[in-house]
Amino acid sequence: MAQHAVASGKVSIKLACVSFGISTTCYRYQPRLSEENAEIADHLIRLTHNQRN
Prior knowledge:
mainly alpha
């Protein structure tokens, strides 16, 4: 939501972070997918699919 507010051009990053109660580090965080995370996600998806049947 903070990034959306900044992207609209109505508020600065600092004001958005204060308004939403987050740090600027949190605002700038970009998750990185690792091969291990993708493998775990695949296992979980298959497990939930198998449990439905």
